[in-house]
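Sample A.
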Amino acid sequence: MIRIEGLNKYYKGLHALKGIDLHVAQGALFSYLGPNGAGKSTTIRILTGLTKATSGDVYLNDFHISRDRVKAKQQCGLVPQSINLDQELTVFENLNIHGMLFHMPVKKRMERMDALLAYVGLLERKRDLVKHLSGGMRRRLMIARALMHAPKILFLDEPTVGLDASIRRRIWALIKKIQQNGATVFLTTHYIEEAEFLAQRVAFLDEGRIVAMDTPHNLMSQLGSWAIDRIMENEMETVYFPTREAAKEYIARQEESFTLRRVNLEDAFLLLTGKKVK
């Protein structure tokens, strides 16, 4: 599990995180959403020990990220935004080096590598150079690498950025599978439909503060079930309704053209922050 208490981070002239309090239960799939500059990546860097907090406490499975640094870092695996695999090494070599860094015995490394490569669908590419893999394969390899030392918590920072829709959905299935196998998953994403589909709970982060936290269903249900979008001269106006019938009755009384759709998680985010996730 992940426990954050009163987390603050200051940079020169910037208060990046403003008293974050957060608890993610063991085995949960949690999504952390916010616009650029909201503090998502700063939070992940602190949670994984890459950046020190100015104040506050972070516990990973009850190990304090500063006082029990080594044990805390052993609890987690990280898939960062940027692809940081060694392009001139093979799939096997990238995973083997990671296992060596965590002092895994040779036999255990070999068994774990084959099991993970089969898990992410890359076993047949084991001897291929990373530079010859597609973008989606590289993302799956990064997830396999993060899982090499069997962490109990997996941090995914924009894991599907730049991938097409079909590959994203394959990664989604893999993330769900990881969570169903017992790992706690902490996900940041620019694709808000990704959080809506995957996460059991989400937090909306804006200007360093959590402005809302709940299940996707509860956040969306505050608005209703159906939405009507109308294109104005310089913006889009959206009206929300509890039922499809109420929305269609409204449309029948109007002269302009409208788009009728289901309420989504982005509607809830826009209502609370006035900003888009991007």
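Sample B.
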Amino acid sequence: MSHQTQASSPARPRVLSGIQATADSFHFGNYLGALRQWVDLQDDYEPFFFIADLHSLTVPQDPKALRQRFVRCAAQLIAMGIDPERSAIFLQSHVPEHAQLAWVLECLTGFGEARRMTQFKDKSAKEGEGAASVGLFAYPILQAADILLYRPKYVPVGEDQRQHLELTRDLAQRFNHRYKKTFPLPEPYILKSTGRILDLQNPAAKMSKTNSGPGGIIEMLDDPKVSAKKIRSAVTDSETEVRFDEENKPGVSNLLTIYSALTGRAIADLEQEYAGRGYGDFKGDLAEVVVEFVTPFRQRTMELLEDRAELDGVLLRGSERAREIASRTLADVYDRVGLVPEVR
């Protein structure tokens, strides 16, 4: 559906979501946990999906690796089913209004209010306040600007993002009250949980890039044979019964969650199918399911990375669509706070 058609049909509610490119590849934890639900949002909403490249600068990074990571992230979003005709996909830094609105919001945010935000509190508690940058301190305010710039109705969030959305709503209300009603208050769109995807080697912890060892995490761009091997080597228990019981059988329960998420089959059906068959069959079949799932995703991502012109075109069109809306919001904000408009 083209942008023009969207404009002439009844306006669909706008949703906005961003992702940080923290690794070279999506993994099952973030993909099955939240990312793939973005694809369904395209049916009923007008989505804006951005790669939060400015947010990555709050900690030291290798510029060359970082640049490559952003490009890989964009390719994977398209490979997983984000359609550039229906969704704007763009890099945050390609829309300068993000940083411009952030400054206005920073001037509305109390120092104590920013200091209470979880991320800054956690990092400064661990490493001392001196180790945290001003960027990390102001990060939630940039996140509020990311959202408010598009005046979306919904923001897809996991439970861990609720605090940031609360700050966003507080700042929107404060701006509306001090100046003039400018921002509708964005509502959380709570992503339906697939169930937490846990580390394959340590099912007491969630699968994550920072805490999982190589054997505990399934990277979607890995060679599918490697992923299959990780499934077959996943920790289970000394029994043989394929049964969902998170407390007593966390490893098997995690594999059932993954199997169900990839196939759409109910966990009860899977328990029934593998009754009396033991872990070998179960893990072997799941390994095949994983290979069938990641192979086309990986191929499509690699094709996109080899055709940089197509990828760059998608990002350019995405940022143009984003700027159409972002520039109007920023013009309203600048006008209401009393800045003089530029006359050309």
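B remarks: The chain is about 55% helix and 5% strand. The first strand starts at residue 14 and ends at 19.
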